[in-house]
Amino acid sequence: MSAARQTGGDPLKPDPGSPDAGSLDPGLIVDEYGLPRCFWQPSMPDYHDHEWGRPVTDDRRLFEKICLEGFQAGMAWITILRKRDAFREAFDDFDMERVARYTERDVERLMGNAAIVRNRAKIVSAINNAQRARELADETGSLAGWLWSHEPQPQTRPAAVDRHYWDNNPTSEASIELSRALKRRGWTFVGPTTIHAFMQAVGMVNEHMSGCVCHAQIEAARARFRRPG
Q: Coiled-coil segments, which residues (predicted)?
């Protein structure tokens, strides 16, 4: 399912034009103010309302998100979100330079940290990916510029994002392409589903439900957004 502060209208203020529950797509719920939101919003309200889908350009936060999506594989995202502060502390706030220099001693340190996900393969993958991210940034100027160059073109996007689309599209052509490009560069735990979730989270695509109050806000943020690179 990263990180830019909300701009635009206040999502907590009722909108007289909001649809009622009877006309909602199954992918939407109506909050206590009568506003439509994505069906998963109640489980992660702040993340949904203020973070998910908002464009991110900071190399460190993009690297963090790829790592956390890798740790999430086979688990619920809310579990990772609850552990995010602990991950940041354990991984030097996902400073690529520092993580790239981790040794076997660091792997053992992380394996002993009960506050994070203690999966050796995923920990080793994060260290490997830090090394690959550093190489990529050195080669191209920034991790952000290279990643955002894989943003899908508008004509490849669905006309509407609804529950049917959500349930039947765990990957996309763009996420498959980016996954392959990362794997060619030696990255691990970056399969198409993981990368699709990454692209959703950092605003490369807007996959809030089309009727969600945040969908229009993110469309506006993406229209103002200056792509890196």
A: none
